[in-house]
């Protein structure tokens, strides 16, 4: 009897549990909207979101000609004015030679008017096709009458004539997503490799009798912008597809290895065919380059010649648009045009140099397990110096240095293209040397609670690049304001630069300043030795972290302050000397404090021994930063004798 009651109770519990299980959201038919969604004021699982993707449904299948058909239906809820930007849509596709095209676009805004769902369709006259470049086009439109509370939705059909260009699917993005579903129906004769980045559970993962594979996620939070994170796409839940084979057939054009990718790229009219095209007047530049005695002198000369001659049009692309010859004539071009010109002149000058395809940090890290040219969005010139040294040259920025890997490519892979040796290799781009920032302060504290002094700042490598770029871009007035760091009590009376035009030396800044020490009174003077650094505020305040931390390079700070005490005052509170490190010793912080002959010396040193910290390490990293920033900004207290 007891056993029977137990079974009945368990059955009842199971029934209740099943009844209480949250229902899986669904994608609805176009135009069919629940009133509850129109009345909804905030995202259930991300309350501060400006907008929410109610559902995003994709279906991928093949027509009888083996064109890929990608049908997508996307619905977004707008919560406030900040979310209204979601109403501007741009759908980019490869339109050259009709390789891809978009048809069947439907789009409408739905508002709740007097308790009734009222749709307003996007006027077809307000849908435009724009040329992005010679290969890409974009379908552009905006939704009408969008306001807080609106729902916008659109659907379209994207036809792709290349079976190798299977669309990738991102379940997650910069908005929270209530439901995201991908349906794929792939013929048995085609085999695709899946590269997945999934951490949240799939609420649906099934294959139907019609060979349709359905995968779905629900209640997916947005990828939040966090300090020193990589691109949003790198951190999103996603599935990528790569064509491997057709049953019974082996096709050499499949880019399932990096060698095949390279062999294809070298044949492209707008890449490989551009490498050896003669440029007007190149003989003069090459002849002068050959007069220099060392390779470094040649490299520096040609690099600066291209930087100063070519104007970058601020667009990144992995192919040329007008071609190198025309870009050179116009003195302007995209990133690949500028740097293939650079490659050509270096090569003609007798240097061992190769074109290298790369991806900017905002575009995303390169996945070496996914051989595909579309991962790249730019090109650089690569010069191997010896087994331990190489140069990665990008002439698009006037502030780049020939002997420093540009920051935007650090900690990712570059694709080396060596046609002569049929070598197409992935190379990890990094800078393992610590990048120094040295600050020396000599100051005197007056009895009236003021500090006068001089700061000498030496900036190396990327710190040098950043300082010169900011100074030349923003102008001296704004640059000085940034040095003051919103401290109205700090006045800079003079600023002088040394070695600003010598790339191989650190940039030196000499600053004379006056500082009113707030909080001081007739008996006490308070001051902080942390002046003229970017270490005032801890950027890692959040208790949790969802993305890896990528500094790009190793930082090394050395900050020394020597402060002369005012007559009639003595030290009341002095920070202690301390040394601490993270559990893995990847960050070491040291502070030395000493008092002698009426002076206080404070020396701070921070050494990052690696440039990437994984999110799994964040708990220890966060705790260390909290303590370190407290110590860096600890005050010194003087008391009137």
UniProtKB/TrEMBL annotation:
Signal peptide interval: 1-19
All copies of domain DUF3857, residue ranges: 70-223
A Pfam family recorded for this sequence: DUF3857
Name of this protein: DUF3857 domain-containing protein
Keyword field: Signal
